[in-house]
Amino acid sequence: MSRKMAGETLQDHENAPARRIVAKPTYDWKNGALARLVKEKLRSVELRPTRQRISLASLLFVAGDRHVTVDQLFAEAQSLKMPLSRATVYNTLHQFVAAGLVREIALYGSKVWYDTKTGSHCHYYDEDMTSLYDMPEDLTQQLRFTPPKGKKIVGVDIIVRLADDESEPA
Q1: Residue pair 68/84 in contact by the 8 Å Cβ criterion
Q2: Residue 102 near residue 93, CB atoms below 8 Å
Q3: Model's pTM, two decimal places?
Q4: Across residues 15-32, what is the average pLDDT?
Q5: What per-residue confidence (pLDDT) applies to 22?
Q6: For the structural domain made of 24-117, what CATH number should be given?
């Protein structure tokens, strides 16, 4: 029997076909470098770094700006075997919104997205793909608004809805 390191092959019998060993993704919510960064981020907004918050913040902030729904984030957590319920994901996202870590974007009906980029910026919403993503160019600075007396503008959100153009060949 020959055994090799992860990513290489494992052969139990001389004539048996080799099997590829695939490393399974794991997360370290206690001691990893990402966990330490996330703990600091949570503490900076006065949130206690619980296992659930660290786990979800790690998913949210590891890959730059993201737009996710509760269902998408819950599915990601499940795929990594994170012991979290859908209600925990929902409640934690609402805590992150209240702390200013993410922004809630309600779209047409009951669909709610959570955006890790919290400043004013523009979005495309693809109705066919049901996906939300940032426009490459921020148009909010080009717009001029005069708020009503006694009010101030705290942000500008632009969402451009897209659908497949049936007249254009794919």
Answers
A1: no
A2: yes
A3: 0.75
A4: 61
A5: 54
A6: 1.10.10.10
Query: Cα separation of 72 and 110, whole Å?
Result: 15
Q: Tokens for 22, please give them.
A: 């695939």
The one-letter amino acid code at 49 reads P
Share of the chain residues as helix, strand and coil, in percent rounded to the nearest 5: 30, 20, 50
Q: Which phi and psi (to 5°) does residue 87 adopt?
A: -65, -40
Residues with Cβ < 8 Å from 48, sequence gap 6 or more? 42
Backbone angles phi, psi at 157, to 5 degrees: -120, 125
Cα(43)–Cα(55) distance, integer angstroms: 15
**Which residue ranges make up each domain of the chain?**
24-117, 119-170
Residue of 31, 69, 67, 35 lying closest to 54 (CA atoms): 35
d(CA 122, CA 9): 47
Sheet holding 157-162, edge to edge: 131-134, 121-126, 157-162
157-162 and 121-126 beta bridge pairing: parallel
Residue-wise pLDDT for 102-146, tens only, equals: 999 988 766 899 999 988 888 999 988 888 999 988 787 788 888
